[in-house]
Amino acid sequence: MDVSKEALFEEFENYSYTLEYYSQESASEEKTHLKIVHWVSLLLCVLAFVLGIPGNAVVIWLMGFRWKKTVTTLWFLNLAIADFIFLLFLPLYVSYVALGFHWPFGLWLCKANSFIAQLNMFSSVFFLTVISLDHYFHLIHPVSSQRHRTLKNSLVVVLSVWLLASLLGGPSLYFRDTLEVNNHIICYNNFQEHGHDLTLMRHHVLTWVKFLFGYLFPLLTMSFCYLCLIFKVKKRSLPMSRKHFWTVLSVVIAFAVCWTPYHLFSLWELTIHHDSSFQHVLQQAVPLSTGLAFLNSCLNPILYVLITKKFQAHFRASVAEVLKHSLWEVNGPATASEQLKSLSSLETDRVPRNQHGFFT
C-alpha cells in the first residue's frame, strides 16, 4: 500500500472488524474461532436467501396479482418487495465473506449492495410501523379511518415510505468505497477525508440515525399501538380478528428479535474509537448479528403460512387454479376433465366465494 492508504488503514482499523481481520497477526486458535463465526454468519445468509426468495415471491404473486387489492395487502406487498429486492443482492455479500472479505465486484456494486441493505432495513421497519398504526386507527377510530383509508391515500403513504427510506439509506452511495488491503479488496465506509474529528462525527451520526429512525422510534411506536390495542379492545369489547392481530404482532416481534443485536453492537462499535479492549468480541458479534438481521427477510412469509389458515387456503386455491389451466392446455379438455373437477372442488372447499382472507 502507498503512504496515504497506510494512513487510511491505521485510522480506520479501530472500528472495522473486516480490516482488523487482516491487520493483525492473531493467534491461530483465535483466528480459527473467528472463521467459524464467519461461516455461521454465512449459513444464516444462505438460509435467508434459500427460504426468502421463493417465500417473498409467493407473497408478491398472491398479493400483487391474485388477490383483491386492499389497503392491508398493499402494505404487506411492499414489505415483501423490500425483502425480495434485498435478497436478490444477498449473494454478493455471501461471496464477499466466503472469499475472505475480498470484494471482486467493483466500486459501484459495493455502493449499490450497501444501499439496498440500508433501503431494506428502513423500508421494512417503516412499513411495519405503518401496518401497526393502520391497525390501531382501523379499530380504535373506525369512522375517521373509513373516510381516509383509501387505496389512493395508501399509495401516497407507500411512495413516501420508499422516498424516506431512500434518503436515509443514501449516505451509503456516497461513503461506501473499496480499498486494497493485503491483496484483498474490501468494501467499507470511507469517512476519511478531512481529519479524525470529522471521521468520528460521521460514524456516530450515521450509526445513531440508523438506530433512532431504523429501530428505536418505530419500535416504540409499534409497541405503543399494540399496548393500546390490547387495553382498549378488552375495555370496549371491540371486535378484532385474533389471527390478524397475532400475524401482525409476530411479524413485529420477528423484526425486533432479528435487528436488536445488530443495532446494539453497532452502538457498541462506536466505543472502539476510545477503547479497543472489546474489539475481539465485536469481531465475532458483528458478523453474527448481521446474519441474524438478514434472516429477518425470509421470516415474514413463513409466519403468514404458520399462523394464518386463510393464507394457506388462498395459496392452495391459487396453485390449484394455475394447475387447472396448465392441465387444460397440456392435456386438452377431454383428458383433463377429472383433474379439473378435483381441483375445482379443492378451490371451492378451501376458499368461500367473495372471501379475501384476513388481509382486508
UniProtKB/TrEMBL annotation:
Stretches that traverse the bilayer: 36-62, 74-94, 114-133, 154-174, 211-233, 245-265, 285-307
One Pfam family from the record: 7tm_1
Top-rank taxon: Eukaryota
Keyword terms: Cell membrane, Disulfide bond, G-protein coupled receptor, Glycoprotein, Membrane, Receptor, Transducer, Transmembrane, Transmembrane helix
InterPro entries for the chain: CML2 (IPR002275), Formyl_rcpt-rel (IPR000826), GPCR_Rhodpsn (IPR000276), GPCR_Rhodpsn_7TM (IPR017452)
Domain G-protein coupled receptors family 1 profile per the UniProt entry, residue ranges: 55-304
Bilayer topology: Multi-pass membrane protein
Compartment(s) of residence: Cell membrane
Family under the similarity heading: Belongs to the chemokine-like receptor (CMKLR) family.
The protein's name: Chemerin-like receptor 2
Source organism of this protein record: Microtus ochrogaster (Prairie vole)
